[in-house]
């Protein structure tokens, strides 16, 4: 492999021998990297070179080598040669050689040792910069120069001792590349320029200093230009969002940029929405942004900020621009700002509201200035605009977190009203993700507000067709409502996978990329995610209303997604396309939502527990590891549901300081109940030993109704046994039990005032008794303390029988 | 992470703070005399305490006119009061949400109003009629979306903050509470809420010698547990459906939330033999410590497993009215903290507004958002050169790509056209030549 004749007699330890490294590098240099005489023949080998350098760290001049002086000099001279070769290539006249040199220099900046970089970065920088400044250099060379300089600056930012020098280097780049941006119409070059600008603004914001306005104007003019592609628009907008960091990085510049953007958006919309909304709306929005008495800022991009009139006529252009500006706002909101910022929530929300209110219909109040064609053009662009507005809403919610509170109610109203209007799947997906974010960030209170809306929409989106993307099949499957129909449906689907014609048909559907049936799948994913989040956060709230419906819906969806589809996922696995992962994703989402519905707190035993366990058990054996892994997790989670645990509380109260009456009480109750369970987790053992295990329902019901009655009986029994002092307490106890019992059993029927009255009545005469009780308690406590101090307290590591029984016998069901 | 406990007393004195791990006394903030539940940490920004007036009893009878209250704020690094906010009526209970963006206060007046201020600006965002009598405690739910308030009149209400801010509903009058519990017969002294999320259990303590367990989801009383004495304070064991109740008889009781017996039967311990009442309790999840404060100014840290006190602090003579466990992240580099603090600018406590302005003023639509914690981490840009090479090489490889093919077709077409053009010209030339030759021949002939 190593062709150098000098080396052929040398032996190496193994493939990791550091002595190999300089040899490899020299080999690369002689074999693959062009020199000034040879022309570049094989570009393909360049990626090979780059990956070899990265894997073997050939340029690192590793400190390991420092033990061997000889080796160190060898590796140093090899890298020296490498760098020299690159520099000659960079200064070559041939653009292809130059390009190779510049690209590899970028890699060198990333890979070389710190010492080498630190001593020579200035030279490298200047040689790279000369190509950007040189008007003669070809485009491909310029693109490479921008990227390599960006890498150089990135490496430079990690040296903390050269901040000033680094900033001055970075500052030298700004003006030349802004000039290039204006002159050269190539998108590839724009892209690398934006990347370089982004690097500078993130790492050395101070470098912009006096050129801030120029940069803003240049970028704004690109955004407002009709020639910019949508891909580049996004990149420019992203950079513009970061730009305020460069202007002293304070909250003022952030707010100013936001204000400029919002004004620009609203001005554009005023034009676009002419005839579609009341004109006062736009005026109000602008008034809000520039309150009277304050100077309005310069328009975005300086005095003649790009609002050239030619473009006013194109609806499409306006919408692309507004979308780009909205994207810029969203990025500003979500990109983590390091200082505190004043977010104009009011303006942002009213902007979103304004956009979403326009649906293309002509309001009656407005005299129809609009021609049919105009309306048609506007309507064609509205979905894009709505989508951007929803993105902006999402970014706003994410950025202000808990402080959304005063506006939360209006956001809820906006979201639910738009849910009713919205029919396009893409917009609905966004709406679902907004809902999910709202639920996650605002919790239970938000779940109370949004639950109904989520459930209604999700049942529409999940209910009408089956989950899969197989339109050919699913359209034939009848609407699934009840278990019987469900079974029929799944049978049918099983059948369909077997029958040749239909399988072929569905395979054909799957094979189509960007088939329209793909969007419903992602819609279903979004709906399932929203349901899962709702169950996670507010599952217990819906017990009276929507819970049962959701449980059924989620169960049906999960069964449909999985049963009879396990196999198909494997069958189609060989087709290299997206739909396969779709299949897995929808299964995962459905299973996740199903698990949430089984585990989420509820007043009754989960209705579909058996179905769920069976489904997860089957799922565990699937070849698809993600699904199998999740099913295993689900089974573990459900284990707690089928074997409710009441583990002994670690060392918490034991017999030591217990009052005698309670001891007797507890032991009696214990005997009454079953009289087993001598150690460990009481409930579990008892449950295991019971011939007829009570369901959770039963336990709960017994807890609600039967136990108090039994208890009073037992208490009376206890009274007979108890000594005279304890007698008092037990009297009080039983009375109180009855009271609590009454109020708990049916609080609706018992009038509250009555309950209060009787309690108060009881309170007064009890006073004397209570005092006595108190004394006895004090005594008891004192005894307990003494016992403690004598070291006779119970061993905490072995939880005692009564303690377990007391704390866990009926426990953990309610909570 | 530095975990410290902060305690205030109800007579004129100071707020003491101690490091829970080492027991070292930290800064003392003064002067302060705050009622029970009147001390709260506002995020990790600062400390707030409502103040008891010395002449409170006198002014109580005279009506609300001269009766004013105040809330003091301290920064964590300064013992002096940073900001004194004076309000129209005395505030008893005070609480802040976990992010420290809102403060709620419950008034000590006859109709117990609840106030909600925005911390960043000090604006009074909402003021609503909470209870018939003064509000004694306020507790945020785990996700800060609900507020539980307890009152001297024995009632407990659960409010949805989102609904409170619903303008449409508030136009039709006050938004009603989500739940309204009236089973307590005497003043509610403390409320705690467990980690159950939407299915959380709420435990309340009262002077009527009971602690009651409520279900948030069902909105009703689950059980009532009778204690030998009035309960002043509650603390929750986060993992064990068990709560601790500090009694007026100096004992700390252990209650089981799902006990079948309606009696509390266990005692963790008592602070002193002289039966000084337990006035407040707090639970610190790190290391599982229960912290109690008592009427004689003693603060005691317990290990609930062994039921022995681990450490005691002395907090002067006055009764301890509040104990808070405060978690602060320590930034090792002090300069960095200072600079980031400066950059974040006005992390100063707000001057709270006395009364509510009109709705338009409140909703001016600007919200000041603090950077999320740990946003000071250095950013790393990505290296791109290697990618660029690979991309360009791939482009070179894809010779048959659509773009080049289209270009090829176009060039072919153009080539064909040029060939035709060439032929045309040639023909023209030949014709012309012929004509010229013929004419020449004719002329010569």
TrEMBL record, chain A:
<dbReference type="GO" id="GO:0006364">
    <property type="term" value="P:rRNA processing"/>
</dbReference>
<feature type="domain" description="Pre-rRNA-processing protein RIX1 N-terminal">
    <location>
        <begin position="32"/>
        <end position="229"/>
    </location>
</feature>
<dbReference type="InterPro" id="IPR012583">
    <property type="entry name" value="RIX1_N"/>
</dbReference>
<dbReference type="InterPro" id="IPR011989">
    <property type="entry name" value="ARM-like"/>
</dbReference>
<keyword id="KW-0539">Nucleus</keyword>
<dbReference type="InterPro" id="IPR016024">
    <property type="entry name" value="ARM-type_fold"/>
</dbReference>
<protein>
    <recommendedName>
        <fullName>Pre-rRNA-processing protein RIX1 N-terminal domain-containing protein</fullName>
    </recommendedName>
</protein>
<feature type="region of interest" description="Disordered">
    <location>
        <begin position="287"/>
        <end position="307"/>
    </location>
</feature>
<feature type="region of interest" description="Disordered">
    <location>
        <begin position="736"/>
        <end position="815"/>
    </location>
</feature>
<comment type="similarity">
    <text>Belongs to the RIX1/PELP1 family.</text>
</comment>
<dbReference type="Pfam" id="PF08167">
    <property type="entry name" value="RIX1"/>
</dbReference>
<dbReference type="GO" id="GO:0005634">
    <property type="term" value="C:nucleus"/>
</dbReference>
<feature type="compositionally biased region" description="Basic and acidic residues">
    <location>
        <begin position="741"/>
        <end position="790"/>
    </location>
</feature>
From TrEMBL, chain B:
<dbReference type="InterPro" id="IPR036322">
    <property type="entry name" value="WD40_repeat_dom_sf"/>
</dbReference>
<keyword id="KW-0853">WD repeat</keyword>
<dbReference type="GO" id="GO:0120330">
    <property type="term" value="C:rixosome complex"/>
</dbReference>
<dbReference type="InterPro" id="IPR001680">
    <property type="entry name" value="WD40_rpt"/>
</dbReference>
<dbReference type="GO" id="GO:0006261">
    <property type="term" value="P:DNA-templated DNA replication"/>
</dbReference>
<dbReference type="InterPro" id="IPR015943">
    <property type="entry name" value="WD40/YVTN_repeat-like_dom_sf"/>
</dbReference>
<dbReference type="Pfam" id="PF00400">
    <property type="entry name" value="WD40"/>
</dbReference>
<dbReference type="InterPro" id="IPR020472">
    <property type="entry name" value="WD40_PAC1"/>
</dbReference>
<feature type="repeat" description="WD">
    <location>
        <begin position="181"/>
        <end position="224"/>
    </location>
</feature>
<dbReference type="GO" id="GO:0006364">
    <property type="term" value="P:rRNA processing"/>
</dbReference>
<feature type="repeat" description="WD">
    <location>
        <begin position="128"/>
        <end position="161"/>
    </location>
</feature>
<protein>
    <submittedName>
        <fullName>Uncharacterized protein</fullName>
    </submittedName>
</protein>
<feature type="repeat" description="WD">
    <location>
        <begin position="271"/>
        <end position="312"/>
    </location>
</feature>
<keyword id="KW-0677">Repeat</keyword>
<dbReference type="InterPro" id="IPR045227">
    <property type="entry name" value="WDR18/Ipi3/RID3"/>
</dbReference>
<dbReference type="GO" id="GO:0005656">
    <property type="term" value="C:nuclear pre-replicative complex"/>
</dbReference>
């Amino acid at each position: 492999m190593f062709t150098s004749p000098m080396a052929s007699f040398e032996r190496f330890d193994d493939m990791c021998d550091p002595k190999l490294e300089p040899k490899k590098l020299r080999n690369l240099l002689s074999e693959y990297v062009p020199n000034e005489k040879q022309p570049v023949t094989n570009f393909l080998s360049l990626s090979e070179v780059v990956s070899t350098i990265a894997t073997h760290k050939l340029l690192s001049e590793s400190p390991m080598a420092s033990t061997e002086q000889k080796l160190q000099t060898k590796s140093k001279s090899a890298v020296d040669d490498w760098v020299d070769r690159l520099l000659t290539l960079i200064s070559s006249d041939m653009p292809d050689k130059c390009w190779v040199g510049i690209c590899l220099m970028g890699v060198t900046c990333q890979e070389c040792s710190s010492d080498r970089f630190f001593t020579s970065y200035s030279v490298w920088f200047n040689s790279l910069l000369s190509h950007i400044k040189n008007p003669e250099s070809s485009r491909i060379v310029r693109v490479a120069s921008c990227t390599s300089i960006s890498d150089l600056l990135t490496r430079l930012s990690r040296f903390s001792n050269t901040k000033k020098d680094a900033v001055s280097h970075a500052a030298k780049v700004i003006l030349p590349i802004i000039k290039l941006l204006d002159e050269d119409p190539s998108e590839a070059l724009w892209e690398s320029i934006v990347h370089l600008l982004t690097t500078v603004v993130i790492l050395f914001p101070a470098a912009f200093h006096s050129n801030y306005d120029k940069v803003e104007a240049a970028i704004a003019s690109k955004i407002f230009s009709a020639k910019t592609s949508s891909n580049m628009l996004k990149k420019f907008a992203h950079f513009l969002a970061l730009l305020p960091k460069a202007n002293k990085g304070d909250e003022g510049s952030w707010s100013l940029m936001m204000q400029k953007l919002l004004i620009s958006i609203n001005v554009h919309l005023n034009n676009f929405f002419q005839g579609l909304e009341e004109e006062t709306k736009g005026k109000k929005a602008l008034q809000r942004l520039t309150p009277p008495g304050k100077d309005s800022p310069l328009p975005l991009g300086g005095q003649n900020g790009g609002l050239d009139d030619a473009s006013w006529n194109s609806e499409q252009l306006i919408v692309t621009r507004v979308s780009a500006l909205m994207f810029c706002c969203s990025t500003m909101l979500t990109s983590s700002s390091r200082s505190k910022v004043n977010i104009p929530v009011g303006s942002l929300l009213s902007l979103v509201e304004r956009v979403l209110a326009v649906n293309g219909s002509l309001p009656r109040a407005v005299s129809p200035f609009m021609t049919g064609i105009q309306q048609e053009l506007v309507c064609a662009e509205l979905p894009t605009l709505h989508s951007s507005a929803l993105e902006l809403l999402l970014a706003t919610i994410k950025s202000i977190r808990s402080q959304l509170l005063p506006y939360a109610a209006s956001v809820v109203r906006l979201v639910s009203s738009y849910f009713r209007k919205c029919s396009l799947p893409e917009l609905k997906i966004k709406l679902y993700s907004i809902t999910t974010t709202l639920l996650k960030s605002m919790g239970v209170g938000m779940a109370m507000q949004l639950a109904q809306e989520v459930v209604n929409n999700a049942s529409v989106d999940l209910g009408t067709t089956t989950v899969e993307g197989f339109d050919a099949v699913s359209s034939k499957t009848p609407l699934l409502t009840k278990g019987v129909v469900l079974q029929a449906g799944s049978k049918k689907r099983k059948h369909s996978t077997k029958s040749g014609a239909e399988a072929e048909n569905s395979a054909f559907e799957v094979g189509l990329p960007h088939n329209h049936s793909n969007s419903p799948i992602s819609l279903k994913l979004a709906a399932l995610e929203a349901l899962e989040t709702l169950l996670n956060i507010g599952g217990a709230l819906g017990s009276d209303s929507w819970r049962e419906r959701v449980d059924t819906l989620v169960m049906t969806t999960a069964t449909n997604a999985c049963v009879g589809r396990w196999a198909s996922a494997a069958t189609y696995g060989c087709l290299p396309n997206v739909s396969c992962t779709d299949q897995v994703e929808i299964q995962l989402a459905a299973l996740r939502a199903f698990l949430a519905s089984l585990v989420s707190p509820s007043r009754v035993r989960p209705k579909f527990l058996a179905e769920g366990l069976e489904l997860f058990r089957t799922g565990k054996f699937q070849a698809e590891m993600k699904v199998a892994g999740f099913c295993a997790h689900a089974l573990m989670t459900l284990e707690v549901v089928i074997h409710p645990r009441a583990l002994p509380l670690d060392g918490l109260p034991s017999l030591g300081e217990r009052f005698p009456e309670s001891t007797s009480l507890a032991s009696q109750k214990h005997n009454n109940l079953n009289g087993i369970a001598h150690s460990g987790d009481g409930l579990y053992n008892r449950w295991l030993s019971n011939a007829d295990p009570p369901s959770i329902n039963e336990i709960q019901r017994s807890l609600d109704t039967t136990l108090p009655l039994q208890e009073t009986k037992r208490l009376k029994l206890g009274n007979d046994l108890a000594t005279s002092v304890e007698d008092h307490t037990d009297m009080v106890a039983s009375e109180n039990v009855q009271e609590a019992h009454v109020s708990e059993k049916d609080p609706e029927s018992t009038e509250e005032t009555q309950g209060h009255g009787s309690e108060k009545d009881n309170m007064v005469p009890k006073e004397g008794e209570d005092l006595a009780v108190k004394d006895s308690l004090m005594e008891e406590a004192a005894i307990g303390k003494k016992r403690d101090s004598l070291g006779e307290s119970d061993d905490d590591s072995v939880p005692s029988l009564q303690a377990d029984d007391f704390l866990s016998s009926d426990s953990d069901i309610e909570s | 992470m530095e975990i410290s406990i902060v305690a205030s007393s109800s007579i004129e004195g100071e707020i003491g703070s101690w490091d829970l791990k080492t027991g070292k006394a930290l800064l003392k903030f003064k002067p302060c005399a705050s009622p029970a539940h009147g001390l709260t940490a506002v995020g990790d920004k600062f400390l707030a305490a409502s103040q008891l007036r010395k002449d409170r009893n006198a002014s109580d009878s005279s009506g609300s006119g001269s009766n004013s209250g105040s809330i003091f704020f301290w920064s964590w690094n300064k013992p002096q009061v940073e900001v004194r906010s004076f309000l129209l009526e005395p505030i008893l209970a005070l609480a802040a949400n976990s992010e420290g963006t809102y403060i709620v206060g419950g008034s000590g007046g006859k109709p117990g109003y609840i106030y909600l201020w925005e911390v960043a600006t000090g604006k009074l965002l909402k003021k609503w009629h909470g209870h018939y009598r003064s509000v004694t405690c306020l507790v945020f739910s785990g996700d800060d979306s609900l507020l539980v308030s307890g009152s001297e009149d024995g009632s407990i209400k659960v409010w949805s903050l989102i609904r409170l801010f619903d303008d449409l509903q508030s136009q039709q009058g006050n938004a009603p509470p989500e739940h309204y519990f009236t089973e307590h017969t005497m003043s509610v002294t403390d409320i705690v809420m467990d980690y159950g999320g939407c299915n959380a259990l709420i435990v309340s303590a009262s002077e009527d010698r009971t602690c009651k367990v409520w279900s948030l989801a069902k909105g009703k009383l689950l059980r009532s547990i009778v204690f030998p004495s009035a309960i002043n304070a509650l603390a929750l064991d986060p993992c064990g459906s068990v709560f601790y109740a500090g009694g007026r008889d100096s004992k700390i009781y252990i209650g089981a939330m799902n006990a079948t017996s309606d009696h509390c039967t266990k005692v963790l311990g008592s602070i002193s033999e002289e039966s000084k009442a337990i006035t407040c309790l707090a639970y610190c999840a790190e290391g599982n410590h229960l912290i109690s404060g008592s009427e004689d100014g003693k603060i005691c840290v317990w290990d609930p497993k062994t039921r022995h006190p681990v450490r005691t602090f002395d907090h002067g003579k006055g009764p301890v009215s509040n104990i808070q466990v405060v978690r602060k992240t320590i930034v090792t580099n002090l300069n960095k903290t200072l600079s980031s603090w400066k950059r974040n600018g006005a992390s100063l406590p707000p001057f709270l507004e006395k009364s509510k302005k009109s709705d338009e003023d409140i909703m001016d639509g600007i919200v000041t958002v603090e950077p999320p914690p740990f946003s000071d981490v250095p950013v790393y840009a990505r290296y791109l050169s290697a990618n660029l090479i690979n991309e360009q090489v791939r482009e070179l490889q894809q010779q048959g790509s659509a773009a080049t093919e289209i270009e090829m077709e176009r060039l072919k077409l153009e080539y064909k056209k040029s060939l035709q053009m060439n032929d045309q010209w040639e023909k023209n030339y030949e014709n012309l030549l012929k004509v010229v030759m013929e004419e020449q021949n004719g002329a010569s002939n």
